[in-house]
Amino acid sequence: MNHLDPVRHVRGESSYLDDIPVQQGTLYAAVFEAAVAHGRLRGLDLAAARTAPGVVRILTAHDVPGENQIGGIVPDEPVLAEGTVHFRGQPIALVLAHTERQAQAALHLIKADIEPLPIITDPRVAAAHNELIVPPRTFRLGDSRATWADCTHVFEGVAESGGQEHLYIETQGAYAFPTEMGGVRIVSSTQGPTAVQRHTAHVLGIGMHQVEVDVTRLGGGFGGKEDQATPWGVLAALGAFLTRRPVKLVLDRMADMRMTGKRHPYSSDFRIGLDENLKIVAYEVTFYQNAGAAADLSPAVLERTLFHCTNSYFIPNVTATAYSCRTNLPPNTAFRGFGGPQGMFVIESAIAKAAEELGVPASEIQRRNLLRENDLLPYRQPAEMCHAEQAWDTAADLYNLPRLREEVAEFNQQNTRLKKGVSVMPICFGISFTKTPMNQSRALVHIYTDGTVGVSTGAVEMGQGVNTKIAQVAAQTLGISLDRVKVESTNTTRVANTSPSAASATADLNGKATELACLALRERLLRHASTEYTLNYEGLEIRNEQVLAAGVPAETTWEKLVSSAYWRRVSLTENAHYATPDIHFDAAIEQGYPFAYHVYGTALTVVTVDCLRGTYELDAVHIAHDFGQSMNPAVDRGQIEGGAVQGIGWMTMEELIYNEEGRLLSNSLNSYKIPDLYAAPKVLDVHFLDTPGHPRAIFRSKAVGEPPLMYGIGAYFAIRDAVRAFRSGHQPTFSAPFTPEKVLLNLYSPVSARSAAAWPSVSTSIPATTSAAS
Amino acid sequence: MLHFYLNDHRISTAEPAGSALLDFIRYQQHLKGTKIGCREGDCGACTVLVGELDANGTIRYQSMTSCLTPLGNAHGKHIVTVEGINAAGGQLTPVQQAIVQEGGSQCGFCTVGFVMSLTGHSLSSKPATPETALAAIDGNICRCTGYKSLERATAALTGQLQERPATEALSWLAEQQFVPAYFKAMPTRLAALQAELQEPTTHATGVGGITNGSFVNGPNGFAAAARQVLGGGTDLLVQRLEQMRETPVRLVYDLAELRGISPVDERGRVTLGAATTAEQLRASEMMNQLFPRLPEYLKLVSSTPIRNMGTVAGNFINASPIGDLTIFFLALDAEVTLVGPTQDARVLPLHELYQGYKQLAKFPEEQVTAISFRAPRPGEFFHFEKVSKRTHLDIASVNSAAWLQAKDGIIQAARISAGGVGPIPLRLHRTAAFLEGREVNIETLQAANQVAQQEIHPISDARGSAEYKRLLLRQLLFAHFLQFFPERLAMQELLAAN
């Protein structure tokens, strides 16, 4: 079954934020931002900008009627800078003008007097200065320190993974309208409508009931609009609140890239110990997370790094410590995987290191250490309904891993310029918000008197197909056609206190709430039917819009039943609440049962590296994935394919570059590259593993949003394998992304020695160029 | 005034010729199906079709990114947005159907761009193969990222397009509902519009060349009033959109005398009109005969919509140190013809055009009108190399071209160009001079690389570290020779020796 939205998408009829017809009197907002990464804000000269054509008003921190604070986890982030600026791109003032062009033009007339302060961009430097967002955290299982002496092999090293720009094609934005009761209504491109509502109320100094947030859909989110849609929603609302006019704020692409945070870069130290059978017996890891200038979601991201620090493996003795380091970069934030991928990259690096040192394929170590039923994860939740080995073995069998290896070896034997590499990447990803209280949801379901159904939940549609799944849940539970169901926009006045659409849990949480509401309505209608038509309640059901009594069509249909229920004054509306059962976590001891369930899978990746040019192609990614009982294979396949390609981008070409001044150099689509059509693997197979699913998953159809991203990590290790095929014995530093630059330097280094000897260093300086047509 | 068709409607507008077609579509015409993604031609979310009447009276539709298309370049043409192909009653076109069917749309924000690119592909006279179908969407980025399902959609479409007849294709396409029926009338309507625009009375009402947003001269006439030349827009609308809106512009994209590729003349030279697009190079049979690997080279140069827009002279004058076409033509020792305001012309070797970073040996009022180069003769070698972070639709980290004459393994003449390794697109004169008279062997190349390393001055930036660019230039230099002399050089030894 297809995703429902695309019929409108292909006709260009789906409405996104910037498509809303503009109300008369709308003011356009442009953000004046800090041009230095750290400094004391001594003064702001707005005189020239205030008198610029079309400018109506310029807002600064002084104009905030409530509290100038939008920090979600830690209150450390003003909506408009006050006193100090902490990163380049930090909003300082908001220009409101009659046209967008006038607002943009006025930005150039504002002068900020900023006294520079020292800038830190490196998380290890920040940690050394004790610039930590929150105190460090440590997960412990067994006793790693006591185990080292017993290990046959011990290896250590450093692994670095870069950040990742979300690059949702629809940039951030919001459109706010003053309401007659003195509040605001905000149309926001956000994954977290309640976050926008809560922070707006706080900043405006009004009640949350005075702030309505509405979201129709997003043109991509990927985590980038979970917390970081909030500033723009709040700023637009502030403008509307103070001017009593509609205010529209849409970031242009380069402003979006400059001002918003990204996936966290990590630098990590690892130490791994194995016994003589290649069983991993001890693992110690220290993560330095580059959090940027404010907490944002970093503490939660950090936590998930720890949750996933052993990926899909059972390791009896683990000590994992994580530091969230404050630097002068835009606050880094959620991105599909939420710290999990960063943790997994390190354990995979540790295994690769061990394998390379021992001269065995990494897969020998990986396969031997996969999680088995009831193995404990480092946070003491057992692996239940564990499919780690099943996923691995199915992938290895179905796509013939031994044969793949032989073919690669043979190819490498016969070719000089081109070398192939292969990797196996198992994944295990926990589903639930790790902050247990967030695992709650509500659904409001109306049945109208003609039998059509409107469903409101807290889920935000951003391409993941959640609205389609919710409509499926309603239709299937009520026994009616999908055509009768409409999923409404996500609106804080219909469904309150929502959790953001994140953590892969949106369909589960909101789907379960929808199911509960529909089950209640169904029961009520069937009770009514049993009375009205004198039928035995037991055995009553609705199927294909026909009421069946003990399997036999009764004299009523869905439409008639609904109508008669109305006339008998039976409620046709239900509001249900769902809270994921059984989960808990105690951060004081770093133990608990935080996840509703885990998702498993394995990807085989084959790449070809051009060892003359340092470029590469992905030949194939073969995936065996644990969907459970997929309720929508078309949507789910799209999530797996898309997540894998996004992960491949993170591991290969997506290179965030900040200079030492904290200035983003990869600041547009021409300097920050995400996968294009030709960069996707030539073959991308997705096999649906035969797994039962989990009762805590909606209709036993497991969450699919984040897990596939981590298949992309396989691309890094396959490229590494190919590099080593060309240059045997060489061990590249563990540094992702593996750009063509790093490939070439690794093929022909020792970088430092050779370059110093052979090539004079040159320091000519020319400005960076921009061009669409290269 | 600018006159054109937007979907089924005749448009007359006084909006500035240098403004972006995208803004006109979205904010003047309120057609919201065309999305804004990047405003630099790198995502394809704003892709539209631009139909131009050709000499045979048929309309040739090309995909273009409307963010970089100057509104003035719509003059006399048929602009098609998604609203212009949507069937009445909500029915999907075969392109739309294929994308829905294969799950090729997730968040939907990029989707219309794919729909338009594939619709353009359907309207094209090129054979519909899996490769051409994929090439049609090579300028569209999907972040969600549904490329594999979009590939499946193009495969389904390629199957359907096998039935497309060679003649009367438009009728068939309308019948199959690829496009609405009004498309069949468009050639006639466009011809009528063109005729109307030629009439002197229309001139009097102000059709033509442009100052400050209003025409004072014919669009096909020489609008001397404007100093700012604007071609395909692919650089200027990225870098200076506001300025293009607000200054008079001299539109050159559609000037017949600036287009086209002449056959090899009696002196053995080929002349290109300055406004020849990269795509026209790619499509030229003669160019393909002269450069058998041209399709491969040009596949590495931006994307289909940008190649449809960007002109050769525009690439030269933008003066990017890594302009792909500049590097290509530098190795061919191309010359440019510069014409001043009094129509006085002079010819300058391309390599003499570049004086410093974005500094040209050209008066601001001079305009490139033609580019010429001596056609490679049989037996001569030519090759182009480019490496970028992403292989396609990216700006080079380093690019290079080489032209060579050799006899019995002795290099007789050489020209090597290199981009991304200095403030200007470079000709490596000393390296070439070093090579001349030497035998092709590992020692020669090693030594040539040493010379080349002295000639270049790369800096570290978003496209790579200086160290990388130096190494990469060596690799590309070697790549040329491995390409030319596979029997004389083995990669392993060449690189091992270093």
UniProtKB/TrEMBL annotation, chain A:
SMART domains: Ald_Xan_dh_C (SM01008)
Domain (Aldehyde oxidase/xanthine dehydrogenase a/b hammerhead): residue spans on this chain: 11-118
Cofactor(s) this protein cannot do without: Mo-molybdopterin cytosine dinucleotide
GO molecular function: iron ion binding; oxidoreductase activity
Alphabetized UniProt keyword annotations: Molybdenum, Oxidoreductase
PANTHER family, alphabetized: ALDEHYDE OXIDASE 1-RELATED, XANTHINE DEHYDROGENASE
Protein's UniProt name: Xanthine dehydrogenase large subunit
Source organism (scientific name): Hymenobacter psychrotolerans DSM 18569
Lineage of the organism: Bacteria, Pseudomonadati, Bacteroidota, Cytophagia, Cytophagales
Automatic annotation (TrEMBL), chain B:
Presence of keyword Iron: yes
Domain FAD-binding PCMH-type: 175-378
Domain 2Fe-2S ferredoxin-type: 1-85
Molecular function in Gene Ontology: 2 iron, 2 sulfur cluster binding; FAD binding; iron ion binding; oxidoreductase activity
The entry's keywords: FAD, Flavoprotein, Iron, Metal-binding, Oxidoreductase
Entries under PANTHER family matching the protein: XANTHINE DEHYDROGENASE (PTHR45444:SF3)
Protein name: Xanthine dehydrogenase small subunit
Organism: Hymenobacter psychrotolerans DSM 18569
